[in-house]
Amino acid sequence: IPHCIDAEEESSLPPEVHFSCTKSIEFNGSQKQGLSEVVLQVPLFPEYVQEHWKEDAFFGYQFLNGVNPMLIRRCTTLPSNFPVTDGMVFLRGQSSLKEEMKKGNIFLVDYKLLDGVKTNTINGKKQYLMAPLVLLHKTPEDELMPIAIQLKQTPADDNPIFFPTDSEYDWLMAKIFVRSADWNMHQLNAHLLRAHLLPEVFTVSLLRNVPMVHPLYKLLIPHTRYTLQINHMARDRLISEDGVFKEIAACGGEGMIEILRRFMSSMTYSSLCIKDDIAKRGLEDVPNFYYRDDGLRLWKSIHRFVQGVLRYYYKTDAEVKEDSELQKWISDIFVHGFLSRESSGIPQSFTSVAEMVKFVTMVIFTCSAQHAAVNSGQYDYGGWMPNAPSSLQLPPPTKKGTTSEATMLETFPDVNTTANGMAALWLLSKQSSDFVRLGDYPEEHFTEETPRKLIKEFNERLERLKMRIKDREKNLKVPYTYLKPDMVENSVAI
Ligand SMILES: *[C@@H]1O[C@H](CO)[C@@H](O)[C@H](O)[C@H]1NC(C)=O
Ligand SMILES: [Fe+2]
User: Fold this and answer.
1) What are the entry keywords (predicted)?
2) 128 by DSSP, 3-state: which?
3) pLDDT per position as a tens digit, 210-259
4) Which residues surround ligand 2, an ion (CB under 5 A)?
5) Helix, strand, or coil (residue 205)
6) Which ligand gives the minimal distance to the CA of 192?
7) Which of helix, strand or coil describes residue 193?
8) 300-310: per-residue pLDDT in tens?
9) Please, what are the domains in the chain?
10) Residue 483: how many CB atoms within 10 A of its CB?
11) Ligand 1 centroid to 411 CA: how many Å?
12) For ligand 1, atom 1: residue with the closest CA
């Protein structure tokens, strides 16, 4: 997994990267208060989820606009280990998979990276984590409806494919196992690895290789605020041997490093660049995909800003090639962040201004927008536990017709596990009072007129985007606000 800062304790981090007093007090206080606050305050969104979590349309919606919009892809051929036939999903012969695939209406979510991992033991009980395959169909009403779920990767008699036409609890249990796999995949891959551990590498490489007078330092340092300390805390309290993940998550404990290693080897440059990622997943024209719509606009805004600033300092590609500090920054990221894996597609050096601009855009996007997209909604979607169980304590049904409300309740985590999980999500979704929003640069590192003008224009674009998203909110049952520019933090700080 990516290398991390060598600091034994929080206090051994350099003073300039520490939390402010305000942030320390709030954070440490709220960790203890988390539980009671969860009980005292009843936020609105988990109530919405409580009402709708069983609905197929809401289940489908979350693959696009929930906390993990990173997995769904358009499906043009069925994987050979997912033998769904037309007769199973189009009961009245009204269409066929082939035809619907041709129209671009079939989507797949595959948790294969979770297959066969060693799961946790919680309260003395073995926990279960599946590696499901989910097939979805976009209806003429533009809803994304799950049409088939297989919970384990290898087709077998004791691994039935579930359908919406099965008994209420067979189908619901299948969806619950998917939501639990999603909780684990989201936390370790989308959130921890990509939106915390990578930003730490960007940060350490910057501090180590780039002097304060360098334009790259001035451009990036605001996007590294609090990242080293929050990651230190995550290592200390969340993913440590006796941390929160060991207490609440199916992926916690011994298996976690193996899971992270698998995610690590699947991490590519294109999957970190939203435009390439959306294209690769074939999602350019899926309706009601707000993560994509807002994310692409934010990427474009950030790109224009980064391009303006860097083109002002680097007039030619030769200047990029000759900047040894810049080159050391990217080569350290390749080595320590991607463990020198060439197949990741991460550049090992920069040969042009354009290449540097794209990479720096990805860094700012990942540390701000992408982290917000996978972080801010955690309590909204996970606050009602059945919608996102961090672990399950019974295996899934091996044949149909054996489930009931009672088996569902026995499968859910214990009450104390649930409460601990809710408190953690609550804490991680809370905005702190010294939050700095995307594009706000209170430290004024740049003194020249051109970069200052570019900052102003960047902020004007963000303001327009904010108004546009506000307008959209009026027409939505469930507003998507995680990428509203004033809700996006400048750095990975929580
Ligand atoms: C959590 O709940 C389980 C099941 O009710 C119980 O066995 C266990 O002792 C509890 N753990 C703690 C720390 O209270
Ligand atoms: Fe986070």
Assistant:
1) Cytoplasm, Dioxygenase, Iron, Lipid metabolism, Metal-binding, Oxidoreductase
2) strand
3) 999 999 999 999 999 999 999 999 999 999 999 999 999 999 999 999 99
4) 375
5) helix
6) 2
7) helix
8) 999 999 999 99
9) 10-70+166-487 (1.20.245.10)
10) 25
11) 15
12) 416
